[in-house]
Amino acid sequence: MSDSKPEEHKRWEEGGPERLYVLTSGLSAPGRSTALDMVTLIVTRHRPSSGLQPEQAAILRICDYPLSVAEISAYVHLPISVVTVLLADLLDNAHVEARAPIPAASLPDVELLEAVMHGLQNL
Fold first, then answer.
1. Cα–Cα 20 to 30 A to 101, which of 9, 36, 67, 112?
2. 20 located within any domain
3. What CATH number is associated with residue 88?
4. Is residue 99 part of a domain?
5. Quick check: is 3 in a domain?
6. pLDDT in tens, 43-93
7. What SS3 string covers the chain?
8. Domain hosting residue 41, numbered range
């Protein structure tokens, strides 16, 4: 029986389902109507306060500059599904702000690039 206790403790430490369930208070998806995707940028609005879960406080500490949900997930070593639930709670309490990702730059005009190359070659 003593062999099963270290195994259970190891599962809890490695992100077993029990720990993730406790972190999200049993929620499997964010309660917000605004969906957070992996590229949504998150930035801290307030410093961590007492009463926050350690994982939420860690998120607030690392988001001094905008980070994507995927980056936050990697930094705190939690699945994205868990991070989105934690972020939804932080958003509801105005601890963080969600921003749309910066749109990708459009590809430059190929004809313009060729004209510039020809102009430089002629110099």
1. 112
2. no
3. 1.10.10.10
4. yes
5. no
6. 998 887 777 888 888 899 999 889 999 999 999 888 888 888 888 888 888
7. CCCHHHHHHHHHHCCCHHHHHHHCCCCCCCCCCCCCCCCCEEEECCCCCCCCCHHHHHHHHHCCCCEEHHHHHHHHCCCHHHHHHHHHHHHHCCCEEEECCCCCCCCCCHHHHHHHHHHHHCC
8. 30-121
